[in-house]
Design goal:
- Helix content is 33%, strand content 29%.
- By secondary structure, it is α/β, with parallel strands linked by helices.
- The protein has a domain of 78 residues: 2-Layer Sandwich (Dna Ligase, domain 1), CATH 3.30.1490.
- It has a six-stranded mixed sheet with strand order 11-6-1-2-3-19, with helices on both faces.
- Helix 1 runs parallel beside helix 3, helix 6 packs across helix 7 and helix 6 runs antiparallel to helix 8.
Length: 404
């Protein structure tokens, strides 16, 4: 990587759209933040771009501010994919080794992954990548790295990731119409996988861990074992549901409810001591910590119950030694770690973002930090965002599905 190289990423979320630009100097492993900006989101519902033109307008504003910050335009950007339309599914691929000397090549690996991606789907759904859980060479299972081995038959057990094509198209249109051309968009990554890049250690991914990313409109989860991705899910519930519950419970506007959640929100039952906040021309709003916790705790418990359902689907309920790592804005609610331990019966902690200087420790920035770290991997080492997972998606290839 060249000296003073800039890496930029966009996190297109339900509540905010963020941009982060960092500078990597020489061989220094720390990434220096040179621009960190966010704008209120519009045209995004539960992680999905529903109005591409509105998102494009916000992206233009953000990129203009970045240019003002750093004195030049960014040359490439990494972006996230989100929404509960994303899905993961197990699949199987089988090919014959192509070389006459029976040595398995990288081409054979790509062929077997492509074969595994060829599964029956509705016409409006799209597989965008395949992650090899294990390879099987001439009946020998459990092989993790096959390039260079000798064999006749190559099989792969894979986890394929996909989504709803119209929603993916909306995202690409929003980015394309914001002033980028295809060559300026480097990679797309599902939000919970990006957040895991910023907050999980290799040891956690080896022993088994679930990252739970509580955003405004969605809660994403990524499960890892033996350093590999084993499950991905995005649930259509997030911290904005908590704000709506507060608005109903305290009979106030949604803007006031959001303020109360941020300033006073907690999952811990407290005392009946009254809080009083000014809400403009109306009478002050009065409530107690106990009253607020009685509203918030059931909704957060519901989120963890949905996470547990996903773990049951893959037979990993209570069986991940690395426990739960919480990220996203919703992870900042006091008492949420204790509630997660209670509901999921696993160890739990808040994810800590590593590898940056000049960045405030805030779990709501985990996804975009993971995108930047992935960009550093790609540009610095000329490999995909997760070398063993192959989850980065090249937009040059991806956009060909949607651009006439």
């Amino acid at each position: 990587m060249s000296k003073n190289h800039l890496i930029a990423a966009l996190d297109i979320g339900t509540q905010d759209i963020k941009v982060l630009v960092v500078q990597k100097k020489g061989d220094d492993q720390k990434l220096d933040v040179v621009s960190q900006i966010k704008e209120n989101s519009s045209g995004v519902r539960k992680g999905v771009v529903t109005e591409p033109s509105e998102v494009s307008n916000i992206l233009q504003i953000l990129l203009s501010k970045v240019k003002s910050d750093i004195g030049k335009r960014i040359s490439s950007v990494y972006i996230n994919i989100n929404g509960n339309h994303l899905f993961s599914s197990l699949s199987h691929g089988l090919v014959s080794v192509s070389r006459a000397d029976r040595q398995i090549s990288e081409t054979d690996v790509q062929r077997v992954l492509q074969e595994a991606k060829t599964i029956s789907l509705p016409s409006n759904k799209e597989i965008f990548t395949a992650h090899a859980k294990e390879f099987i060479v001439d009946g020998q299972s459990g092989v993790k790295e096959v390039t260079g081995l000798q064999g006749v038959r190559l099989e792969a057990e894979v986890l394929v990731l996909g989504g709803f094509s119209p929603y993916l198209k909306n995202l690409t249109q929003a980015v394309l119409n914001s002033g980028f051309n295809i060559s300026h968009v480097s990679d797309m990554t599902p939000s919970p996988i990006a957040a895991s890049r910023a907050c999980l250690t290799e040891k956690q991914k080896e022993i088994g861990v679930v990252l739970v990313d509580i955003g405004a409109g969605t809660t994403g989860m990524a499960v890892f074992e033996e350093k590999g991705l084993t499950h991905l899910a995005v649930l259509p519930i997030g911290s904005e549901n908590i704000s709506k519950d507060i608005a109903i419970g305290l009979k106030t506007d949604i803007e006031v409810a959001e303020r109360i959640k941020v300033e006073y929100g907690t999952c811990q039952k407290g005392r009946e001591v009254k809080e009083r906040i000014d809400i403009g021309e109306e009478e002050p709003l009065v409530f107690s910590q106990k009253q607020l916790a009685d509203i918030i705790e059931p909704r957060v418990s519901e989120i963890f119950k949905e996470v547990n359902k996903e773990l049951k689907k893959i037979s990993r309920e209570k069986l991940l030694p690395g426990g739960i790592v919480l990220t996203g804005g919703g992870a900042k609610i006091p008492g949420i770690v204790e509630l997660a331990k209670k509901e999921l019966k696993l160890p739990c902690r808040i994810g800590k973002i590593q590898g940056f200087s000049g960045l405030k420790d805030d779990p709501s920035w985990a996804t975009i930090c993971g995108l930047v770290l992935g960009g550093s991997d790609l540009e610095g080492e000329q490999r995909s965002l997760f070398p063993d997972l192959k989850v980065g998606v090249s937009l040059k290839r991806f956009f060909k599905n949607f651009v006439p």
